[in-house]
Write a structure and sequence with these properties.
Elements: E1 9-13, H1 19-27, E2 34-38, H2 42-49, E3 56-59, E4 70-76, H3 85-93, E5 96-104, H4 109-113, H5 116-124, H6 132-141, E6 146-152, H7 154-157, H8 165-180, H9 182-189, E7 193-198
Parallel strand pairs: 1-2, 1-4, 2-3, 4-5
Antiparallel strand pairs: 5-7, 6-7
Helix pairs in contact: 8-9
């Protein structure tokens, strides 16, 4: 909306269980958009199939091997899991005019002090770690033009229940600094991701 895009076809690569596309379709019922999700994991694809309906379809295929093109490609928390992430982003970018990326920002002063990246590697399979500047530079290095970006404050939005007292204190610092100095909050305390629109 902010960039006045009106895509007629949207595709998500690595769509998992398909809930992102399902939510997008529910939030834009008046738009005539054809949504497609590509997923190579058989288990995730089975879950995605349960969400399939008119104008929302899922494919257990590698999008990079397909000849299909779209108006908008979504890559949500995906390329940090891929060995050759630069090659992957370049090939995927050929599939659409506009691309939207959601990139976890695992690198911060706090994450380095607490050795968070190795936890992200073990528990969620991240092979590459980014901060805002390296995330944007990655997309630029892949030949993309950055149109717009903003932080998504995942750590702030989660429920504080289950956090240690120290964890709650760090979250409080995130909230305080995010209001006035979001770049500092992301670089110092982590817990943020980056949503990027590129072409």
């Amino acid at each position: 909306e902010r960039n006045k895009l009106q895509p007629k076809t949207e595709v998500e690569i690595g769509c998992g269980a398909g809930e992102i596309l399902n939510q997008l379709q529910q939030r834009m019922p008046d738009k005539a958009i054809e949504f497609s999700g590509y997923e190579i994991s058989p288990d995730a694809f089975k879950l995605a199939q349960t969400r399939e309906k008119e104008q929302l379809h899922f494919y257990r295929e590698d999008l990079l091997q397909s000849s299909n093109r779209f108006d908008l490609l979504l890559m949500i928390d995906v390329f940090e899991h891929v060995d050759d992430y630069l090659g992957f982003v370049k090939k995927a970018a050929e599939k659409a005019d506009y691309k939207m990326f959601h990139i976890p920002l695992d690198m911060s002063a706090f994450s380095i002090l607490t050795n968070y990246p190795i936890g992200a590697r073990k528990h969620v399979g991240h092979l590459h770690y980014f901060m805002r500047d390296t995330a944007l530079a990655t997309l630029t290095d892949c030949g993309l033009e950055i149109v717009d970006w903003f932080y998504t404050p995942g750590a702030i939005e989660i429920n504080n229940k289950g956090l240690t007292l120290f964890g709650k204190f760090i979250n409080l610092l995130r909230k305080i600094f995010y209001r006035t100095k979001p770049d500092f909050a992301a670089k110092a305390f982590g817990g943020f991701s980056l949503m990027v629109l590129a072409k």
